[in-house]
Amino acid sequence: MPEPKKLIGEDGRRLDGRRWDELRPISLEVGVLKNADGSAYINWGKNKIMAAVYGPKEVHPKHQVLPDRALLRTRYHMAPFSVDERKNPAPSRREIEISKVIREALVPAVLVEDYPRTAIEVWVEVLQSDGGSRVAGITAASLALADAGINMRDLVVGCSCGIIDSTVVADLDDTEDKEGSGDMPVAIMPNLNQVTLLQVDGIYTRENFQKAFELAIAKGREVYSMQRDALAKRFFSGEPQPMEESA
Amino acid sequence: MPMVQRKQVIPGDVIATGNHRYGSYIEKRGDEYVALRIGLAEVGPDGVKLNPLTGPYLPRAEDQVIGKVVDINGFGWVVDINSCFDGFLPASFVFGREFSPATHDLSSKFKVGDVIGARIESFDRSRDPQLSIRGEGYGKFPEGEIIKMSPTKVPRLIGRRGAMVNFISERTGCDVKVGQNGVVVIVGPPEGMAKATAVVKMIDQGTHGADLMGKVEEYLGGSSVAGA
Amino acid sequence: MSMKKNYVVETIRKAQMLELLNRGKRVDERALDQHREITVQTGVIQKANGSAIVTLGDSQVLAGVKIATGAPFPDTPDKGLLVVNAEILPLASPYAEPGPPSEEAIELARVVDRGIRESEMVDLHKLCIVEGKTVYTVFVDVNIMNVDGNLFDATSYAVVCALRTAKMKKYAIENDKVVMKDEETPVPVEKTPVSVTLARFGDKLVVDPNGEEEGAMDMRITITTDDDGNVCASQKGEASTITPAQVLEAADTSIRIGREIRAQLVEATKS
User: Fold this and answer.
1) Is A109 close to B25, i.e. CB distance below 8 A?
2) Which of B50, B60, B105, C189 is the most buried (most CB within 10 A)?
3) C3-268: CATH, from 3.30.565.10, 3.30.230.70, 3.20.20.70, 3.65.10.10
């Protein structure tokens, strides 16, 4: 059996120089697409992901109308050039599954009951993919929903943790995801302290399972503060905002 | 002056705790009042309020709206009111009780494409909002510049008790009709219309601070078209 | 196809369920951490290399294994192929329809596949015949025959039982060519992963929800564990949430219940 590639060096640093619990660089921008009701763009490591929200709008086809709440549609889609080998643009089984878990991660935050008989569409387009693209997509999609002014209980933010060289680490990149021995994407509503997405693969002792899970939540909270900053930049531009003229 | 606390909030933020009256876009969780929108929150003697900075127009009964006729059926007009729900203006509200689809020609009154001002008569979660044009200032707008703006910025365009919109009217010599659904129609002399349009767009796009009136005054200042 | 989407549980029935749960009971009189009866029949399809019909309560699934040889993936030249797929047959429920696999069916297949793959149940290196050229390809296809909740666990058990009893042809290399023999050898099974699904109702977690419970639950969480009590796959499902503490509680329950079920599956498939 070939010796597995070393992903953590003697100095405790990972291949890209990060410590075990360090995030890759992340940047977020809100309100980037003119046509969309809400949008956000995220750079997370090499991930480049655009999220757009349309709606609430009329439901087509009509038979999908929900009488008491909005229908939230999600599509996670990877551009053909987003990966090393060209990806067939038709949705793969992986993308269909991820679209479903992303929807189930976002719906708990949205007051869908405030928009009966309508559709709210969330499009997540991966322009370049790296490890953790689904949690990056969720992080951007939740900002796009807030930007669209959809009533939300909380933002949703994600981070993935996993195991490389038998060590629990935060925020796996592409190589670590492929060569490592486990990936655990987690999404939370940080104020409500609720988990809205959890997927696990790899082999985790009970102790490592808890360590990776709790690390993913803690790192998600770090990303949450970046989400806040991105919204403040878009909407508050640092000015104090008294409202004398409000009717 | 009673103290009013103000803060910038995003969904999930706690605006206040305790026992208060509270308005739209706020959810009460235990004794916490939580924001559901990005916006500017106020806590004062009137309770907890949230003025959202973004969001779609959702119809409410009694709202004054401006819309365009997009369809006519046997019983009334379907009106796009810049919302996910189309408004419906029943023909009987216009022709009266003696309305009969056989004798009245609906398109003689409003055609597809016509812009009308209306009031939302009723709206519940199961049916599209019903419109009425009874009352002064409603009905067809035959001319003017039509502008769409964010519905969340409409209160700023109107101003306290109409101060802002009246000021713009006065300085530009235009009639500025504001729909709470974020549709504005401006009628008046051409130079005045251009000025008024620019001011509406400025209010829509900016994240203005306290002295919005000052900024508008500065913009319209020396160039009063109406000679006000 | 999911029971949840189409199967509406009466409000009073749901209220009854919640009331019972508060007293530690369930509608079918099970304990909160008790799974339904599991039955296993192996070797039911002669033309398959391995097969099993598993019932979990009234959910019934049939897994069949077909083994051939083929080229490995370029990035894993020394590993055989193992692919798990599942289809919810139109005959399985009044709500199931023919056509391309639904989102639910795709999720089901991928979650079960993940549990089998990540646990390293089958030693894929031992499926390599000539590195970079020829490997065994193991396809496990699952037909859902009757739906009554918790297809994730029922499907996973059927796959495990079919693989544990599957046999593949031995090979020899003659004149640089791979020649298949008539003799057979078991598929190199190293572990027995066990999937345990819990449904959340408010602050209660129950093991192995039946169809009616799935119709009323807030959400579900599936956790697959291996022989050493390691977690090797998990999936949260449905548009609701779970607290961090409940996730850890679910992990402990899955490890504990998984141990019992593993013993039963091993017993039912020993040669």
Assistant:
1) no
2) B50
3) 3.30.230.70
